[in-house]
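dumping this here before i forget
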Amino acid sequence: MKATFKIERRGRKRKSGPRWPSGDCVREKIEEPNVIALRMPHRSGVPRHLAHDPKAETVLGRYSLNGLITAAEYDAGIYYRGVVARQLAAIGAPKSDVPSCTGEAMSRGKAGGLDDDEMVRRKAVYDQAYEAVEGGGGQHGAKALARVAVYDERCPSGLFRQMRLSLVGLMVVRGLCTNAQGIDLRRKITESWEI
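structure:
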């Protein structure tokens, strides 16, 4: 008579389902990124063939993908977002998100970690960028650009032209276009009837 042994297994039970000959579970087919991107509601305003583009994550990027702003204007907006974020971090300003309003995370970081020269440099870069933005589209354009580029909100109605003019002012200062090209862009924007 043969002796029978009971095999005792330890640990977590094996998942049920089909297996490869090696014993590994057969994984479900993963959907393509385009299909997943099309299900995201904030990407619905972008053409279907561009919904998977990383730019579609932000309002400024969606404006660029829809052809409402140029690639250079998009680059200027991204630069402005970075300048503002670095300045806010340097002065230790509270974050604009909901948890910071409840007192959980009031500060972006300690401003004490930066030396005085770095603080002065960040302030100078911020001042130069803000002057260019306000000089291009006025105070309304600067506020509209801040809402779109920094806080990722839609442009307030009626201020899209001023926001674009602010972006052009920043493009000239950053060297993304010449002063003559900036004047030509400003003329085209003010004459256009879009948005």
